[in-house]
Amino acid sequence: MTSARDLRRRIESCKLEHLTFLIHQEWLLDRIEDALAGAAPRIEWIVGPSRAGKSMLMEALAQRYPEYREGGVRRVPVLYIPLSQAISSKSFPSLVLEALKVAVRRGDRVADLELHAAQTLTKLGVKVLLLDEASHFVEPAARLLPRSAGDMLKVLSERASMSIFMTGIPRLELLIKSNDQLRQRASAKRQFYPYNFREADQKSAFAACVKTYYDMFAECGWPIDVEFAAFVKNCFLHTGGLIGVLSKFMQELCIRPRGEQPRALSLEDCKRASDTAGGTRSPLVKPFKSLEVSDADLNVAHQYILDIEPLPDVRRL
C-alpha cells in the first residue's frame, strides 16, 4: 500500500469526536440511560446546519446500544432510523417496521400500520427512537402537514411508552411549533452549530480538529507546508466552522495524482483541493489564497453557514 493510499484510508475512516459532538453525546447518553431505567418518555430535538455532525452523533448513540437477546427473546433498546425525503403517514410506520426487521403487511390501512408499529416497538422493548433528518417531516414538498406529523409522533411515543430523539436542520422547529401537544412534551431546543472563531474555546476546538488531520498528513509522508495557524484560518474560511466540510476538504487534499511521490503539500495544493471539494462556502471569501486571513473574512465565512438554512416563518405554513 502506498503512503498516499494509506493516508486516504486514514482520512476517510477518521470520525472526529470533537468538543461540540462530545457535549451533545454526553447529554443524550444521560437521557437514554434515564429512558432505559424506566423514566417517563421524552421528546428531545437538536437542530443545526447540514454537515455539522448530527448524523454521526445519532449513529454513535445507536452503536452504544445494539440489539441483544435475553432469555432467547430479541431486545432492541434503541432504534435508529435515518429518514428519507419522502415521508407520508403510511411510509413512516412502514420505515419503523423495516428498521425493526419486521415484515410490512401490504394492504394495511394507515391506522393498522401505526398500531402494528407501536405494538412491535413495545414487544421488542424499544425505549428510545432516534430519528435522524427529522426535518424531512416539514420540508416544503412533504406529504404530511406539520401538525399531522406532530400528532403521529406524539401518539407513537405514548402508545409505545418510548422517548423520541430527533435531529434536523433549523426547519425542524416548525414540527414542534405547529403542534401544541408535541411542543408541551418536548424539551428545549439544543443547537449543534458550527464553531465560531471569535469564541476562544470554539477556536481551540476547531484547531484541534485541524491538527488531527495535519498530523496524519505528516505521518504518511505528505506534510502540509503551510504554517499551522495560517492553515487553521484558511480551513475555517473553507468550512465556516463545519467539521463535516473540514473532513470533505481533507479527503480531497489527500487524493494525489497516480504515481506522485510523497512530498510537502503547498498552499497552492490546498487551494486546488478547496476549489474541487465542493460543498457550501461563502462566495465572498477565497480560502488558501493567502497566508493572511482577516477577522472580517472569518466572520463572513461563519455567518454564511448560519444564514443558509434559517427558520422559515411559521405563519406562512
Strand order, sheet with most strands:
4-5-6-1-7
Based on CA atoms alone, the radius of gyration comes out at 22 Å
Q: Identify low-pLDDT runs.
A: none
CATH class division of the largest domain = Alpha Beta
Number of strands: 7
CATH structural fold name of the largest domain? Rossmann fold
Q: The biggest beta sheet, please?
A: 5 strands, parallel
Protein architecture, described:
The chain has helices at 3-13, 19-36, 54-64, 91-99, 110-123, 146-160, 173-177, 180-185, 200-219, 228-239, 243-253, 267-277, 295-308, and strands spanning 43-47, 68-70, 73-75, 78-82, 128-132, 163-168, 190-191. It is an alpha/beta fold. It folds into 2 domains: 3-13 and 195-308, no CATH class; 40-191, 3-Layer(aba) Sandwich (Rossmann fold), CATH 3.40.50. The protein has a 5-stranded parallel β-sheet with strand order 4-5-6-1-7, with helices on both faces. The radius of gyration is 22 Å and the shape is elongated. The model has no long low-confidence stretch (mean pLDDT 92).
Secondary-structure blueprint:
Blueprint (H helix, E strand, L loop, with lengths): L2 H11 L5 H18 L6 E5 L6 H11 L3 E3 L2 E3 L2 E5 L8 H9 L10 H14 L4 E5 L13 H15 L2 E6 L4 H5 L2 H6 L4 E2 L8 H20 L8 H12 L3 H11 L13 H11 L17 H14 L9
Parallel strand pairs: 1-6, 1-7, 4-5, 5-6
Antiparallel strand pairs: 2-3
Helix pairs in contact: 2-3, 4-5, 5-6, 9-10, 10-11, 10-13, 11-12
